[in-house]
Amino acid sequence: MVERPTIVVLHGGPGADHSVFKPGFGAATEFAQVVYLDQRGSGRSDRAGPGSWTWDRWADDVVDFCDALGIVDPTLVGTSSGGWVALTAALRHPERVSKLVLDSVMPGPTEERLAVFERLGGAEAREVARRYWAGESGDEIRAAWESVCLPLYSRKSGGDPDAADRLARIQWNHDVLEHFRHVLAARFDPWDRLDRLTCPTLVLTGADDPVATEPAARRLTEAITNAPVRLHVLPDTGHGVFREAPGTAFPLLRDFVTDSTEPST
């Protein structure tokens, strides 16, 4: 029985569930206790309603969850919008978050993201992404997004072979995702508060991520001025570095969570 750091892993979507991390995060159990959470409205947690689907509520839920389980000094690991929740929790409850890991988190400006989609998938991908982010609804645009744009999230050779199985087992709440597209995305703006972040922070991003772009990750790192921060940009990597490049990402996570010294800013 050896005490290990505790990692609380927060999924994206929003509206997905923790199964997106399995079996990959089994690699982290070699150096940490890994705890998974389906956020409010998602997966196997209570659906609740749009009034409680907010960044602040989700962030407070993480702290309440840790209280319920007696987790005192968690490292929060957030991927995609789960990183938005993790970052909000660290800003709202700085005394409760030991370390912070932000994987594929900060979206670039629309034009910056569209340029990456065009580079990876041509004019069609750019147009579908533009329409989707502009808020168009309906089965046609959802199908186009899933068939044209989502495959470009991965830069694995031959595509992401596990994508179909992973998507099939997720207990999606598409209402949360639509609420995010139409309401919540515009309400996430932490830029003027990033200087309040105090816990050691690890930022991971893929050089070919069409959503959380590399320049945005660099701007994020530069804006964290009062906390030790490390940035790693992984080449030939798309969205979600733990899934895209586990051989690189998990050793970086291990070194970060087990390091008792503060990383340099």
TrEMBL record:
Q: Name all AB hydrolase-1 domain ranges.
A: 5-244
Q: Which GO terms describe its molecular function?
A: hydrolase activity
Tell me the Pfam families matching this sequence: Abhydrolase_1
User: Keyword Hydrolase: yes or no?
Assistant: yes
The UniProt keyword set, sorted, is:
Hydrolase
InterPro entries referenced in this protein's UniProt entry, alphabetically: AB_hydrolase_1, AB_hydrolase_fold, AB_hydrolase_sf, Peptidase_S33
Gene3D superfamilies of this UniProt entry?
alpha/beta hydrolase (3.40.50.1820)
Give the family, as the similarity comment puts it. Answer: Belongs to the peptidase S33 family.
* Stated name of the protein: Alpha/beta hydrolase
Q: Which organism is it from?
A: Actinoallomurus liliacearum
